[in-house]
TrEMBL record:
Alphabetical list of Gene3D superfamilies matching this protein: Homeodomain-like, Tetracycline Repressor, domain 2
Organism field: Nocardiopsis aegyptia
Residues annotated as domain HTH tetR-type: 19-79
Keywords (A to Z) from UniProt: DNA-binding, Transcription, Transcription regulation
DNA-binding residue intervals: 42-61
Entry-linked InterPro entries: Homeodomain-like_sf, HTH-type_TetR-like_transc_reg, HTH_TetR, Tet_transcr_reg_TetR-rel_C_sf, TetR_C
Keyword Membrane: no
Pfam families listed in its UniProt record: TetR_C_11, TetR_N
Protein name in UniProt: AcrR family transcriptional regulator
Molecular function as annotated in GO: DNA-binding transcription factor activity; transcription cis-regulatory region binding
Classification of source organism: Bacteria, Bacillati, Actinomycetota, Actinomycetes, Streptosporangiales
C-alpha cells in the first residue's frame, strides 16, 4: 500500500516566533529578489516561500519597500567584520569592492526598484537614503578609524561628509550607467579621490 503524500501546509509545521521567524522572512525576501526581481516581488510570494502568514509580514513591514530594505541590509557584513589589510588603501578597496558586489546582486535590484517606487514620497525617499548612507558610512568609519590608529591619517581628516564620498560615487555610477562596477573603477576612486581626501585636513582642503 502506497504511503500517503506528506502535506506541505505551513500551518501543520511547528510555529516559529521572534528572531527565527524574522530571519526566515528576510531570507525568503532575498531569494525572491534573486529569482524574480523587485518589480515581481510580492508579500504573498515572500510569505509562501518563508512558510509564514501574510499577517506576520504586515505586522512588521506595512509596505513592500520596508521589507525589502530590511532584507537587503540583513545580508550586508557587519562593519566590525571587515578584513584588516594593514593599510588604508587596501581597506578602502576592500570596502568599495564589497559594495560593488552587493550592487551587482539582489541589493542592486532592490535599490533600483526602491528608488522608482519611493521617489514620489520625500518621506520614504529619506528612509531609503538613510539606510543606504548609514551602512556605507559605518564601514568607512571603521576603516578610517584603523588608519588613524596606525598613524596613516590625521583624526581631523575624518569629516562626516567625507565618509559618504566613495559609496556615493559607486551608487551614482550604478544607478545612472546600468553596468557592473569594475575593479579598475574601485581603484580609481580610492587612488584619485579618497586617499587624497583623507590625507588632507578639512581646513587645508577648503583653502
Amino acid at each position: 500500500m502506497a504511503a500517503e503524500p506528506q502535506t506541505t501546509d505551513h500551518r501543520k509545521r511547528p510555529r516559529r516566533r521572534g528572531d527565527a521567524l524574522i530571519a526566515a522572512i528576510l531570507h525568503a525576501t532575498v531569494q525572491e529578489l534573486e529569482e524574480r526581481g523587485y518589480a515581481a516581488l510580492t508579500m504573498e510570494g515572500v510569505a509562501e516561500r518563508a512558510r509564514a502568514s501574510k499577517a506576520s509580514l504586515y505586522r512588521r513591514w506595512p509596505t513592500r519597500a520596508e521589507l525589502v530594505m530590511d532584507a537587503v541590509y540583513s545580508v550586508i557584513p557587519d562593519p566590525g567584520e571587515l578584513p584588516d589589510t594593514g593599510e588604508l588603501r587596501g581597506d578602502l578597496i576592500s570596502v568599495l569592492t564589497r559594495t560593488a558586489r552587493l550592487l551587482d546582486g539582489p541589493a542592486g535590484q532592490a535599490l533600483r526598484g526602491l528608488m522608482a517606487e519611493v521617489l514620489p514620497s520625500p518621506e520614504r525617499m529619506g528612509q531609503v537614503r538613510a539606510h543606504a548612507q548609514g551602512m556605507g558610512r559605518q564601514m568607512m568609519e571603521e576603516v578610517t578609524r584603523r588608519a588613524v590608529h596606525r598613524g596613516e591619517i590625521s583624526p581631523e581628516a575624518l569629516a562626516p561628509r567625507r565618509m559618504e564620498v566613495g559609496q556615493a560615487l559607486l551608487r551614482n555610477h550604478f544607478l545612472f550607467h546600468h553596468e557592473p562596477i569594475s575593479d579598475e573603477m574601485v581603484e580609481e576612486i580610492v587612488d584619485e579621490v579618497l586617499l587624497p581626501l583623507f590625507n588632507t585636513s578639512p581646513v587645508n582642503s577648503a583653502t
